[in-house]
Queue: 4 jobs
Job 1
Amino acid sequence: MPRYFLKRLGAAIPTLFIIVTLSFFITRLAPGGPFEEERSLPPEIMANLQRAYGLDQPVWVQYGRYLRAISHGDFGPSFRYKDFTVSELIAQGLPVTLELGSIAMALALAIGIPLGTLAALRRHSATDHVAMSLAVLGIAIPSFVVLPLLGLIFGITLHWLPVAGWEPKSLRYLVLPVIALTLPPLAYIARLTRGGMLETLGSPFIRTARAKGLPLRTIIGRHALRPALVPVAGYLAPAVASIMTGSLVVESIAGLPGVGRYLVQGALNRDYTLVLGMVILYSSVLIGMGLVVDLLHAWLDPRVRFAR
Amino acid sequence: MSAAPTVAATERAPPILRVDALKVRYALDGAEIAAVREVSLDVAVGECLGIVGESGSGKSQMVLAALGLLASNARTLGSARFEGKELLGLPLAALNRIRGSKLSMVFQDPMTSLTPHLRIGVQLAEVLVHHAGATWSHAQRAALDMLERVRVPDARRRLRQYPHELSGGMRQRVMIGMSLMCEPKLVIADEPTSALDATVQAQILALLREVRAQSGLSIVLISHDLGAVASLAERIVVMYAGRVVESAPTMELLRAPRHPYTSLLIECAPSLHRPRLDRMPCLLGLPPSPRDAEIGCAFAPRCPRVTDRCRVQRPPLRRIDEVAEVACHHPLAP
Amino acid sequence: MSATLWRGAAERLRANSAAVAAIWLLAILVLLALAAPALNPNSVETLDWSRVAYAPGMAHAHWFGTDRLGRDLFVRTFEGARTSMAVGLVAGAVSLSLGLGFGAIAGYVGGRTDYLMMRIIEILSGLPLVFFVIFLTVVIGRNSYVLYASVVAVGWLTMARIVRGQTLSIRRREFIEAAVAGGAGPVRVIWKHVVPNVLGPVAVYATLMVPQIILFESFLSFLGLGTQEPHASLGTLIAEGAGEMEAAPWILLAPGIFLALLLVSLNVLGDGLRDAFDVRETA
């Protein structure tokens, strides 16, 4: 097991490095500089700006400086939000996004796994059909359709919940965005759990457990659940990616001040440093999560864990 | 049609297991498959009964039906009484009180029949924890004792290991130990040695013999290997195509089989022959499929003594003396 | 892949009532989208200043209402639908060919070529495509070509992986060796033998890929990074509608519901195909 971990770590670090490098060079080599839209500026001011942002140096020097800077957590100033550095924006937005994303992930697991288990136990029953139909809807319908519709029903028509906006300690503003963000991974997890549980329940060792007179909850909890969740563990990394992409849209619609919204704004405003910093941030998170999730997967799957 | 219970059973206490006209059917793609066409048999208290048959004869399906372990698309008809209590249709809670405690089962392939991600100690102890309300520490001590009883060496270390870390023979000992944790009255062993090689087979059978001598429990031993069954069982039931075709005390069955199928089985069982043979005799053809309708005697296509009557009229199971039954129109002479 | 396999699959599909319903629904949606211009005389560009932000109604000519600029929503919605579907089909076809070619070559040639190609795919899979597209948008600007290229990229990676896997398993089979022994060059072998046998899983994944592509395009358009004005796709229309939710909720509903129905029916159909081809009983 430890060897497996080191191997994965060894693959992760170069990937991150390649992403950082590629991203950097693409920005620098792309046609037009960051200031091409402000062509009306006189040349001296342009030159000053170039110098201030270090753009007058050769590319390799810029690269080196950038690497050194980000190792200190300094992603540079934002090109558009003139008063803020990228790091400050990240520090502001990250807690919001993390709160949103972790609640969504936790709910998806907490609801999806029992739902899938129930559907497997009541296979072919009405419960099963209803649950799986809802799952299809959850998987297919994107969050940027769900969230406005939810807002329309619960916000504008019923006035139960706010449609957009945010207050630091208030949970009301998170309800609809969390629901919209949770539905697709929840649906997937329910389906995967159902499939895994069905397959596991047909195993010989479950028959042995039944022959031992063990109650259903023991059979499911102690004997069936771990092998049944192997496909879910394999889905965790894509789930994180799905929640990350979903948060872009959800934060934008609901006006939540998270890093997702900053990223989208940065893209629309062509804010180089912001986007670069965000991309590196998201990549690291995703790669890190991928690593954690791989370990979890290996622990759950007896074939990997006990491999000689 | 069921025969009257054997004299041996009625003379003493009532049978610990009485199967009466048990049938198992599956509905598949609109057709009905008869896994067990009809079986009646008794197991006396303290007896070791062997059930022999080819794969597809229904021998496993029958016991699985009795214990309520079949898939949900199976239909079971008839009766299976354990200690006088009807098992079929018993509510799950009541069934679970019996399964694993008073009536337990040992399965064929211990590698797939043990939970791969749980330690041996846990799988043994949980039986006691659930049925006897024992604490985990007490149950783990009992598990240790059990491992020693079934002669697993280095038991303390084995308790903490996982199934894949044990050899096949040791795993099967663990399975037997699991079935004995609550001191059952009846243990059903379904092909307990088929997945093991010959030397280990003999050890496992010896273990079963020893356990039985110690505690006087009843055993049902199911196998396709007549030799294995004969070494342990006092009475043997031969099944073919979902029905009982012969039942008799072991020595009598081996010495003077009445049903042609039994006779051929004995000839083909390598473990029963001491002299070396020039050529291995074997049964030609295949048993009928559970999907087919039953017309006449199921063994007719392969029987050396077949007549026209056999092809149209199914021979009922008939008592031939106090202790034996056979289902054949032309049984062999004693 | 024998004819019996296809026939068996077709039978299983027909027995799957959800999949059949999905096919019908899909057909209706496509027909509606194509026929819409004929049904409603309003043109896409006409700005009807007299009826700005009108609620839907049959009395006037604007069945789905109008948007903030007075454009008829019925026509716009279905134009958006056509755009989204066209992107799905075209990008899907390109993605399919790319993935098929890449995967078949990697699986067939094997060795270092395969290793290299797989590493490329792994690295490209490292980050969700969205971020990559956002990144490119920042660098290159909002450009249709970026959009199209990235939309194609959504599916081809997984397609390549699937094709490679299938190719690997087929490569060792006898008839391939026979063909090679018969003197057929690698291209011919791939084209005539490998490709037809890979088609089963490919068909399944292709059907599941189209809604992914449509979803991706809508996603980008929603964020403002995809289809640009004055063209409309379902994504842009939904974005508009979301912005006008309090004042004019109907702007959101038509494209939102259409997109939802489109994606659901495609997904159900794809699931049905997968079950039809896959003998394993986990449904």
Note: The CA atoms of residues 19 and 280 of chain A lie 8 Å apart.
Job 2
Amino acid sequence: MQKNQENIPLVTADGTPLKISLARAQRRSKIIAFLMVFPLLLFITIAFIGPIADMLMLSVENSIVKKILPKSAEALQKWDEYSGQLPDEEVFAAIVEEIKQAKASKQHTKIGSRFNYESSGFSSLFRKTGRKVKKIKSPPFKDGLIKADKRWGEIYTWQVIKQNSSNYTDGYYLAALDFKREFSSGNIKSLESKDSIYLKLFFRTILLSTLITFLTFVIGFPLSYMLSTVSTRISNILIIFVLLPFWTSLLVRTTSWIALLQQEGVINDFLLLVGFINEDGRLAMIHNATGTVVAMTHILLPFMVLPLFSVMKTIPKSYVRAAISLGAHPWKAFWKIYFPNTGPGIGAGSILVFILAIGYYITPALVGGSSGTFISNRIAYHISSSLNWGLGSAIGVILLGIVLLFFVLYHRIVGINNMKLG
Amino acid sequence: MNYFMRTIISITAFVVVGMVSQAMATELVVVSWGGAYTASQQNAYHQPYMDRTPGVKIVNDDSAGSAVAKLRAMKQAGNTTWDLVDAVASDAMMLCDEGLVDEIDHNSALANGADGSSATEDFGDFIVSPCFIPQIVYSTTFGYRKDKVSRPMKSVCDVFDLKSFPGKRSLEKKPINNMEWALICDGVSPSKVYDVLGTDAGVRQALAKLDTIKSSVVWWTAGAQTPQLLADGEVVVGSTYNGRLFALIEEQKQPVAMLWDWQVFDLDGWVVPSEGKNKAEVMKYLRFATDTQRLADQAKFISYGPTRASSAPMVGKHAKLGIAMAPHMPTDPNNAKTTLLFNYEFWADNRDDLDAKFNAWLLK
């Protein structure tokens, strides 16, 4: 029977085998489907995957040393940096020649800044040497270079250059995690707690973002419940109030919080008027973590309310009524029947608010003072101000890792399918 | 010729003329700091130049704050859209070293001073980099609320004196300037400040001094914050750029006074991006915009000192307020009794390291 079927294949009306015809039709619809998502795919590749890959590269990239000082880096490989001796004349000759070239192509300060990220003083070392290197014309280059700047006669200088001359570096990640490489021994040491910056900021960012998420939930849940129970006409008006902050500039909203919360501000004046505090007891509610939490809870509230509202809208009222009519206490009916049904909304809202909060930087910069700034403020600082893009990228990659980790955790605990964005 | 044809021809002529005049107008993108500062440049340089040179249109861009980062990115992308950038001296040096901006032959590119001196003589030491065309001298200094102190503040060390002057202070959220002031007020001789700050013990000493007021400090990140905090009475004393304080005191009539003691001078000037597309036109503009009269004119609109020696005697009255501007200049002898000059080399070397230490200290 089976053999028979294989021998006489099924054919369509025009004589082509059914299998081929079917595959052809499917291929066509696959191509059409692909073409339809292609613009999106292209956009995501260019605007999302590309920059992230670029950021990953920047955080480990170190080819600048091999590009500008290729021969010196090569010659340094033969030198034993723990021998207690300066490198050979060969290395000095190579670096003199290469600094001359770098000076001509205006690259010498770039390499100086690169080493300066690892150890202070390299910026001026290369700048100064660049100015004087023309005068070093004949061997011995060692004496000439040390005359140009005595730091070339220190073993430490060469240890830094040698240990940072490979094409990739872990230096930015070490710095981003509060580690330090001691170039004189090559050991990696974690910074003392009093010198640590980034770990504290990562921890604070996660803590405050969690708090903000929780607060938006506490405020947003009853609000959404009310919105979903009143008549459509009223709920539409109230929804506009929820959305209103969306239509106001972020800066305006943040500065209004400053006017409200500052020590000479509206709230303190009111508390003083009603005698709740005295003139010396004005509360510090801004330029600290409180300011960040208050302002960001307000700004991110709609992202919690909207998914909650859309989920609550779909929960039939009869569920709770049925539970009560079957003898449940109203509170128990709410807790056992209504609340679990809002799960997808809570999940969606929480993850939206948390992920947005963890990357916020304008609001913390304006109202956070020193105790309410986030890790993203350091990223912004390194990208636009200190111009240490490698370190900025490394912090960015770690932050991305943390977000993904929370996402995976969420998926494990709640399940990503159990989320409703509205 | 019928009516229809005539209409067609006149429309075509209109469009062609429009396109030609569009093509003839050169647009120069000038990057500066925005706000009152860009307005002063608009009034003193851009508008007079456009009035004289009909084919040129100057477009302002307010992103000077991130000029180095953006110029680097533009060069990488191979499309530099800026023609002229207003930069602080340290940024100008960095850009010059990296070849992102052009070196200038000051004497041939710029006008002689009104007194006949060459441009290099007239600008003197202010030409801190071969790429840099100095424009103004500004300073970072303090303003205090006259009505909230028991006696006038005279010394920068009053900022560190919580007993005599209780209340909050606003300081920039950076080690630069704060560390210097802290050391001076901790008894370090001003001429030795950078020697001391270059050592670990010196950094600890500066931070320990800052520790004494840490709980009373509001940290600012944008120059406009201190004037606002002073106006709100949120702080008693705060540091910012002197021009901002002038606007607060003279234009907005707030009860604030200047504390010029140990103001830190810095320079601001033009640099020409080397990949700019209208360089010939930019150089013509620069010759005009940096002459003696124009630099003196800018001081009518903002209280920053002109960098040409020949402009100083021509500084007149404020364009709207009608008050003499000379006493409000940071360079005025009465204001400049004790000054520091921003130390470019020290901060180029130590900024990364001190910034990390400063931020670790902030988090403690």
Note: Chain B touches chain A through 33 residues (CB under 8 Å).
Job 3
Amino acid sequence: MKTLRIPRSPKVMIGLGIVVFFGLLTILGPYIAPDDPNNTSFAPNLTPSWHHWFGTTSLGQDIFSQTLVGARATIVVALVAGLVATLLSMVVGVTAGYVGGATDDGLSLLSNVFLAIPGLPLLIVIDSYLPVASRSNSFVIGLVIALTGWAWGARVLRAQTMSLRNRDFIEASRIIGESRRRIMFAEVAPNLLPVLASSLLFTVLYSIGAYVTLAYIGLTSTSVWNWGTMLFWAQANNASLSGEWYWFVPPGVCIALVGTGLALLNFGIDEFINPRLRESGLSARQRRRRGLPRRVRLGLTPVLRPAATQASRSVEISKVTP
Amino acid sequence: MIQIARRLGVYVVTAWVAITVNFLLPHLMPGNPIQTMIGKLQYNVTAAEIKSIRLSFGGSLHNGLIHQYFTYIGQLLHGNLGVSITLSSPVSTILRGAVPWTVGLIGISTLLSFLLGTLIGALLGWARGSRMDSLIPAATFFQAVPYFFLGTVMLLIFGSDLHWFPELGAYSLSVTPSWTWAFISSAIRYGELPMISIVLSSVAGWMLGMRNMMITMVGEDFVLMSVAMGRPRRKVIMTAARNAILPSIANLSLAIGLVVSGALLVELVFNYPGVGDLLLNAVQNEDYPLIQGIFLVITLAVLAANLVADLVYFALDPRTRTLATA
């Protein structure tokens, strides 16, 4: 059986490392936090020290604990939103692409409309009408974010399904009499997986941004600690003008790191789908080791093979030349 | 032409959906938000103002939803977006003061970031594997940073620490808004830092997209052919880039919404007197007529920008024209 060649470029490995680290933080964060994030008993505005790794807020709360505890709400909401949005985009996109006709027209119009409406303002309008009780509920917020973030995935999945539907190997399966269900699940679905995975990463990335933004402008309950709420308090207390960088830098850097990790993983998926990108993801040293030209030559698409090194190639050549 | 008409149709439907959502939300929520809202008015309202607010939500509740809906749309067509609860003046008047700032700041920086990102992306894609590739991880990081966070950091470093740029607002307090050079130069000076932070946050997306398309394009036969024909390198790159830029422009509809959404928050960080800053204040004061008015204006502006992007796309891609005549 052909094994899947998962790209092992350093970019992808770093991305995986970051994502696993924050995944652990989501589970363990509240347990390993040294203090209660609401505890205001410390001295205010302490700079980072051994006792308070990230310093304290102007209310005397430990910022390190807030960052650890805040990871959970941030990532859980992003995951809920990402999963729901991907599910929605899969149902809409695959149906539109596979069924075609009037169904396709209707569903495409729907996703185009949601693509054209700017997501964040829509999110703000919906969220501002939510009752205060629902604003502290991770699942309600996640669902609302999903509602504004599914359309991109649906469009990509529709295009991929349509292009798959007309491929020769699908046509062949149809001719040799495979059932419609077998074609859907055994032939089309595996080829959609990379696109689906990439779309999931993208929506999780979008959802983190959306959730943090909502919290930052004060539209989620301030009783739930997440990275956006921390930024909200930092902004409300003018931390950037009074030089308290340690207040808003930790949550901001965490958001950026999670985002970078997801984007790097996405590179891996892109390289998996498109061999041309795979080759371009290598460093100079790796290229040399694999016997690729140092500079890319026009008109040639070097495709990586597992271990077809110089040695085996020279054997082939020696066989041909008598 | 058919293609343009189709896109136009999508935008008309989108505008209609946005308007309908705006109308339905206050009616779908439990209780009676409109009544509560009028109860919250903090100043002495005249009967005419209450009537205007009522009308902007569809008039009297006794009239049934359909009737209210048409009243609402009629009011919109007359430019009545209701009266702001906290600022005690019509929403349309308030918006008229804020929109020019936002169009100036976000419009220019989005355009700048698109041009810059596409240019760098094309070069990166052409010279892949070169030392320039080290830009990519940095770009990925900047892409993941929320706009408002980058703005906050820039404000701290370059505004309050180094004093290279003025800190808050859109113009110096010593000048009054007018078409004089003193005012315009002050506005430019105050706009620099917000603009730099928007460009820095959004440039990476254009760059990476263009790079990937360019790499795919460089592998195409026509590029090899151009090189074989001995055309000057600069011209070959231009030809490849011209083809690689098409998906970038086709994806503008997704990107403009995202960029504008992010950029609105930069206004907050810098206290820039545009629509984004207004939106935050409206949210914090639960000023629903203002929130809804801003949502409508932003949506319509983004749709207009999309339409322009589509027209550019049709002008650049001859395939769309042959399809239309066939």
Note: Chain B touches chain A through 70 residues (CB under 8 Å).
Job 4
Amino acid sequence: MAKSMLLINRHSPWSGLCARETLDIALAGGAFDLPIGMLFLDDGVFQLAIQQNPAVLQQKDLGANLQALPLFGVDDLYVCGESLTRRGLAADRLALPAQALDTAALAALVDRYDLVITL
Amino acid sequence: MATLHLLAQSPYSSVLDSALRLLSAQDAVLFTGDACHALQAGSAPLEKLQQLPVGIELFALEEDMQARNISTPARVTLVDYPAFVALSIRFDKVNSWL
Amino acid sequence: MKFAIALFSAPHAPSARRALRFAEAVLAEGHEIVRLFFYREGVYSASQAVVTPQDELDIAAQWRAFVIQHNLDAVVCIAAALRRGVLNAEEAQRYGRQAVSLEAPWELSGLGQLHEAAQQADRLICFGGD
């Protein structure tokens, strides 16, 4: 049975390559039919903010790639509720269908996966 | 399943706070690099760490503590590289905070 | 035990040296390294172009020597490397670039190699962050 991998995203989308290169790990895993989960934590929740305009920064739309996650079989998307609240974002107005978790649930989430990397 | 959380950043960034929020009862933390500043006597991070349940073990990479002249708090175990390898085997997985 | 070791930081980063010391200990303790995978800024740690002052630690050179000595499978993520200007002869020619900074024993390949190693190994340990 394949080992499951949780990727914890802590970086905002327009602060360099981290968000994109973390997403690439997820998509590659999905392409190989591996069980991959994504948790958006701290500034990583900004990746899920709606109606962003990366074109004005001459950046590729990361959002479009994030939308590809389910197509690659990566459906287990989670977001830290506290990180959202602190940053003024609402769990029901996100660019992706991510399940909001409280702190206790975050620890339980990490426990469930065979592999975890925090970027 | 117990996780060893591997930290390498200053405790004055948000990494330490976030890592502590994600700890399960059987987890442990290994402090390396500037994360060792969290173990500095009299510091706010150390005060916070002393509040952790006693079941959560704290480790520090010996060379990083020595380089920074940080004395080892009572509940922290120093590790060298062979012990670091052993730790990575003892715990089910290692979550590196990059 | 089988280890997959990934490095995410450049050669001057403390974590690049720490990863090497850890990798050395893994083998010294009688374990196996199934693959080294260098990603993100870690691609710079595989560069042959790094010039280090004589009185400083040359971690890129030490990594290379370590890989050769133990005949390890050493992979650099091709997408991350290209973005950062770390090219082998083949890629330099393909893209018409004058600089070749990656040579054997390092191989350029995709993230699938990281996943394969993580699946095969008993432990995946990633280094970076500082």
Note: The helical segments of chain B are 15-21, 44-50, 62-67, 81-90.
